[in-house]
Amino acid sequence: MSALELLDELGFEACAMVLGPEGVREQRGDVDLPRPWRSVTKTLTGLASAVAVQEGRVGLDDPAGPEGSTLRHLLAHASGYFYESARTLQAPGLRRHYSNYGIDEAARHLERATGYDIDDWVREKVADPLGMSRLAWGGSPSVGAVGPVADLALLAAEVLRPTLLDPSWSRELTRVQFPELVGIMPGFGKQTPNPFALGFEVRGTKSPHWTGTHNSPGTVGHVGMRGTAFWADPAADLALVIGSAHDFCDAHREVLPRLGDAVLEAHAR
């Protein structure tokens, strides 16, 4: 039995790809169908920001966002912003408040510093170099990307084997920022702690969670509320990319952890 046959248990159309360092190991379903990435878009914005930092265009500790906040706070959901507004819940660095507005504000800071529109910067610095030719970028830098799972797989492969960032900046991109912070993980409740990196979610010891129960704590990726997700597990040297034709729901919460464990059992080194 293929590990990806578990997709059938979702009860609606879905596809997936398993990647190792050498490339695609297994795939199932329509990986070329354009799909809304929603919050998976945040990983593109995070990577694009890290490229700008590496080039010296911006600094992670640049003041950005509300008083006392930095670009690092914004990308790591630690600025204190509400979910989708410029109002703040408290001072930066006190709690992990997941915020689309904060990621969008990080992109606005990037635009001011580089002189590029964020979509042009992402295209030139990330999408084109990785061959993500079918990525459509529009709307919010936190939720606006649309593209096939095959293009998302190129991003996941980049996380496994970085080409756009030097090793030190690649580590910073996926390293937990403000590791002690507690917060609400959308769809999964309060997590203590609730680790995030720069635009990427970090698995840590979160439970419940959408990745496999056997994914390593250093696993990074993101899930989108329109049913697209990916994780890259450095310990297993594997990535899993998923797309589906249904908003994130209880079926995803039940099947995706089992799918992750099945992929790890079948493919981990």
Description:
Helix 1 crosses helix 4 and helix 1 packs antiparallel against helix 6. The strands form three sheets. This protein has a six-stranded antiparallel β-sheet, with helices on both faces. A three-stranded antiparallel β-sheet has the order 3-5-4, with helices on one face. Strands 6-7 form a two-stranded antiparallel ribbon. The model has no long low-confidence stretch (mean pLDDT 97). It has helices at residues 41-54, 71-75, 100-114, 118-130, 149-160, 167-174, 250-267, and strands at 14-20, 23-28, 35-36, 136-137, 145-147, 183-185, 189-191, 201-202, 220-223, 229-233, 238-244. It has seven helices and eleven strands. The chain starts with 13 loop residues before the first strand and ends with a helix. By secondary structure, it is an alpha+beta fold. The longest helix has 18 residues, at 250-267.
Concise overview:
The chain has 269 residues and is α+β, with helices and mostly antiparallel strands. The chain has helices at residues 41-54, 71-75, 100-114, 118-130, 149-160, 167-174, 250-267, and strands spanning 14-20, 23-28, 35-36, 136-137, 145-147, 183-185, 189-191, 201-202, 220-223, 229-233, 238-244.
